[in-house]
Each structure stands twice: as structure tokens, then as C-alpha cells.
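Marked as duplicate of an earlier ticket. Keeping the data here for the record.
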Amino acid sequence: MAEGRIIKALSGFYYVQSGGEVYQCRGRGVFRNRKITPLVGDFVSFDENEAGEGYIMDIKDRENELVRPPIANIDQVIIIASAVRPDFSPMLLDRFLVLIEAKEITPVIFVTKMDAVTEAEKREIEQYSKNYREIGYDVEMLSSKDSENLPVLDHYFDKKVTVFAGQSGVGKSSLLNALHPSLLLETGEISRSLGRGKHTTRHVELVEIKGGLVADTPGFSALDFNEVEADELADCFPEMRERKRLCKFRGCRHHKEPKCAVKQAVETGEIKSYRYEHYLQFLEEIQSRKPRY
């Protein structure tokens, strides 16, 4: 029995990397019976029955998992937000951050196309970047010219499993191609009339980049909060999470409750008002969704 990590899933086969080799494996029927699907990123035990082929016998416990893309044991999600085309949106960025925080995965923020903004837009985005750094997030601002010279980003990937996320047209595939030219991912042409890109990725695969593994497919094709409960939402905002113990009421949702430390921090400017407004919008969205049975 050998052990390894699934690095690709395609047409019912799972490609398991073990000891520098890749084995083409099938999942045992027992997984189907238990309604368990092996995922890219899973650590598994497998039986090699012929040269380079085998059967997955066991799946190790997962640290975390995503549904889109279907991948497990992720260290970080790099959110790609563009400065323009599509325009920088703190609301959309906060949606991504909440979904990643809810999975207890580390988010990193890359803002692309900084060379295509006006001076006023640049100042505004730099202020937002400063705000997110103060919360504790790593933020990198990149111009199109940076794609030829990316060693400054190498440390983000070393010994980590990374998924890229972001709306269409922000430059996810272009950045992956710049980091790993032999990938030659199709870059989606942006339809300017629609203001969005074409979806260009296929199966899920982990590729070796800069000493780590990167999923060559963008994540989060759906940005709803179906898996986030109202009581968990504030924990997905680090600046609220660290103040909730100071609220008068246990289980405070930081909305209409009196003596709320989060609302006090918004009033004093310690928590940015736009972040709090997004929190209230997301809370309303979660509370108004239809119950699941």
C-alpha cells in the first residue's frame, strides 16, 4: 500500500502523485456506496496493481474542501481583483473574503491592472489596500508589466496549495500563464459589451508552480452564502471576530443589539463603515434565504 496526493481528476481516473511518480488510479466502489468522492488535493492510500496504475483504498481526513472547484486541503486562496475592466469592487472582494474565511482558508489579495487606472482611482485603491492590510490581509498591487517579472510573488506559493479566485476578466489565467509559461491556459477574451469574460477552464489539476501546487482552474463560480449561517458571519470579518467578546450580549449579531463593541468600533472608525455595511447586507441575505429541509 502506497500513499500520495491526488493532483488531477479526469473522466473517472484519479492521478496520484507519490514519491516523484504519478499513478493513474480508480476509486473503489466502497467510496460510491458511502457517497464519498475523492477530490483533487486529497491525501490517499492506494494499491498499485500494475506499473503506474492502481486503486484508491482510503482517503485521509480533510483539512478543508471547496465545492467549486472540487478540491481539498487548500492552504490559501489568492483573490484576483482588477483595478479596471471590471472595476474594483470592495463589495465583491468582501464576498470572496467571507466565503474563504468561512472555510478557514487563508485569503491573499492581488489587485491587477494597476497601470490602467487614473491617479484618482489609484489613490482610492491604495487606500482600500491599506485598509485590508490593517485588517491583516496580504495585498499585492500588480501592473500588466509585472507579468514578465514576478519573483516578488514567489514566496506566496512556496510549499503551499493555492487556488485562484475572482470574477471573469480580472486576469487569473494571464497571471497563471506568467507564473508558469508552459501551462498556456486559454485566456478568456473580455467581451466589453457584456463586461465579463468567457469561462475557459476545464478539469481540476494541481500544477507545480514556484515550489508549491496551484489549481489551474479559477474557484468560486457561485458567490452565494448557502453554507454560511447568520451566527457565523461576523467571524468571517477578522476585525469583528476579535471584538465580539467585548459585546454585552453573547451571540450579538452587531445589528440592533445595545452595547455592541462592533458598532462602537464602526463609530470610532476602527472598523471601516463600508465593511460594516457589507456585513449587514450579507446578514440580510442569509436571513432572508429560504430554509433548507
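See parent ticket for discussion. The radius of gyration is 21 Å.
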